[in-house]
Amino acid sequence: MKTLCWILLGSLFITGCATSSITTRKQERLGSYVALNSEQKIAVDLGQIKVGMTPDAVYIAWGNPSQILQGESSQGSTVTWIYTGTYFEEYRYWTVPNYYGRGRYYSAPHMVCDYQSRSYVRAEVKFEGGIVKEWRSLPQPGY
């Protein structure tokens, strides 16, 4: 059992975390990265995108989108990539717990704070003709 734990720990160390990074995405799509002009390479390396980039360049800079939407404009068909984020929203409520002490039960209302995980649209990237025509980032709710 101890040996199995060491093997699993070693394999986790060697493979690293399963999260994607700019470096790993550059390796995945090296041909596309090499084809970028110098301004676009700098932007991608900084995790930024620019109008005129290809979907591969956006993927390298930002990773996989949460959703891909198909659409149409007066210019033709469009593709919109949606990136989502997560934040914690506080909510409060009253509770009346029972306490036992000195041989008697007591109860007193008090407020409790808890947090719920919420998703929101963090950014949108719109492609027309296979290149970025526009993009926007959106603020996290509550800020």
How would you summarize what this structure contains?
This protein has 143 residues and is α+β, with helices and mostly antiparallel strands. The protein has helices spanning 2-15, 22-28, 30-35, 38-45, 55-62; strands spanning 67-73, 76-95, 98-101, 104-107, 110-128, 131-137. Strand 3 and strand 4 form a beta hairpin.
Number of helices: 5
Tell me the overall shape.
elongated
Integer count of domains: 1
Structural class: alpha+beta
Largest sheet: 4 strands, antiparallel
Share of residues in helices: 25-40%
Strand order, largest beta sheet:
1-2-5-6
- SSE topology string: HHHHHEEEEEE
Commentary on this structure:
This protein has helices spanning 2-15, 22-28, 30-35, 38-45, 55-62, and strands at 67-73, 76-95, 98-101, 104-107, 110-128, 131-137. With 143 residues, it is α+β, with helices and mostly antiparallel strands. It has one domain. The strands form 2 sheets. The protein has a 4-stranded antiparallel beta sheet with strand order 1-2-5-6, with no helix packed on it. Strands 3-4 form a two-stranded antiparallel ribbon. Helix 2 packs antiparallel against helix 5 (55-62) and helix 4 (38-45) packs parallel to helix 5 (55-62). The protein is elongated. The chain starts with a helix and ends in a 6-residue tail after the last strand.
